[in-house]
Amino acid sequence: MSDLPRGRREAVRAGGRRARMWLTPGMGVKRWLLLFIVCTFVGAVGFLHFTWTGPLHFVATRWILWLNALTEPDIMPLYVGGMAVMALALGGAFLSIVMLNRSMLRSTGTAPENALDLIYSHRTLSRGARIVAVGGGTGLSNLLSGLKAHTSNITAIVTVADDGGSSGRLRESLDMIAPGDLTDCYAALSDSPVLARLLLHRFGRGEGLEGHTFGNLLLATLSEAQGGLQGAMRDVHEVLRVRGQVFPATTTPATLVARLSDGREVRGESGLARQVGAARVEGVRLEPPDLPALPAVLEAIRDAELIVLGPGSLYTSILPALLVPDIARAVRESGAPVVYVASLMTEPGETTGLSLEDHVNAITTHLGRAPDWVLLNSKTIPPDVQARYAAEGAQVLTLQGASRDLRGRVRSAPLLQAGETARHNPAALAQTLLSLIARARMAP
Fold first, then answer.
1. Neighbours of 3 (CB within 10 A)
2. Which residues cross the membrane (predicted)?
3. pLDDT tens for residues 141-165?
4. How many Å apart are CA 292 and CA 35, to the nearest integer?
5. What is the pLDDT averaged over residues 18-46?
């Protein structure tokens, strides 16, 4: 294989991967393949019986004599020729089925090369763990991109209180919820790489378009056409081929209000970090306070096997989604374990000087329930990366000074993604969360 050209080697590997996917348990393929082979051989025996005992006896005799004439008895037994013919006939039957399926798929607009991925997604991933992820920003979309390789039973509950950038402009112009974090999550869970790339495309020019992403404009268009994003949810998931579900925490525009330790209040998510100054954030709330949640969101929380908070900004990504009363109540009443994925670093302004225990206490205070587990990265962040973040006022979150209760809740794993930035590795994070689910399933 090493002697093959690179493109050919990759094609061979892809072919091997696809072959293994066809044989994955639960695909619903092997049983029908076996039935096809059995029926083919039974049909062959029945046809032989018919020709040998019926009016086609003369034809069968001539066929056997002709086939025997092509076979050298001294080289191989006569029956081997019959086996070769059967193998060729079976191969031809398989080929005809494959080509028939290709023709049918093309007529429906589905590329044959994508059919296996679709079947795998619907058959295998549909039996995966039921996970609810709460938050927003890059952290949540990172998590989703790792989880979607293991399950399609993912529900992302996304904060919609952003009031800056493209989201803020659309929100102000159209009186809609902020679409930015929704767009990131849709791109992370989309089964189409092309659509995912288009959703995140940001226009660099054009009057009125500059600064907007295509995904934000798409959600704004659907929201406008359907009289709100709630009515467009089904269309959004279908158009974007989302593996799982992505829902806003609420479909009503809301404003984040932060209460600071010096008595001030800061309105708006975008200005929080730069307006905190030397003070600390003591709490946050949403206005209006009595915000509705979608029934599908509450149902997903009730059915969840694991509820994941983060990773993401504490006060501007995680807590805003939990401030919707019905969501907080559903999480408190859920029998599923709640895991908080701790940030790798503090965030300048927003969580400057806060310890890991301060993060957990803030979640407990606002949610009314302490996380069952706290997932903490155990891999050392390179010194040069730490130094660069420290110059901006960010520090590594560790267990230093943590209470005995918190230490009992912490689960550590190497979650750092290699690179110049401090980010969670999506694959490692997903694997660790799945191991927590397996542990919860085994618990009495």
1. 6
2. 32-58, 78-100
3. 999 999 998 999 999 999 988 887 8
4. 52
5. 70
- Closest residue by Cα to residue 190 from 242, 155, 226, 112: 242
Which residue type occupies 298?
A: L
Of the candidates 319, 311, 297, 302, the one whose C-alpha atom is nearest the C-alpha of residue 341 is 311
Fold of 129-442: Rossmann fold (3.40.50)
In 3D space, the residue among 378, 346, 377 whose CA is nearest the CA of residue 362 turns out to be 346
- From residue 188, give the alpha-carbon distance in Å to each of 153, 298, 345: 14, 22, 23
Give per-residue pLDDT as tens, 320-377.
999 999 999 999 999 999 999 999 999 998 999 899 999 999 999 999 999 999 999 9
Centre a 10 Å sphere on the Cβ of residue 273 and count the other Cβ atoms it contains. 19
The neighbouring-strand residues paired with 308 are 133, 339
Q: What pLDDT is stored for residue 109 in this prediction?
A: 58
More confident residue, 22 or 357: 357
Domain boundaries, the chain: 6-123, 129-442
Q: Give the strand order in the sheet containing 154-158.
A: 245-248, 154-158, 131-135, 306-309, 338-341, 373-377, 410-413
How would you classify residue 3: left for phi > 0, otherwise alpha for psi between -120 and 50, otherwise beta?
Answer: alpha
**Which amino acid belongs to residue 157?**
I
Per-residue pLDDT, averaged over 238-260, amounts to 91
Residue 440 CA to residue 118 CA, distance in Å, equals: 30
- How far does the chain reach from its first CA to its final CA, in angstroms? 50
Q: Is the pLDDT of residue 114 over 80?
A: no
Residues facing residue 133 across a β-bridge: 156, 308
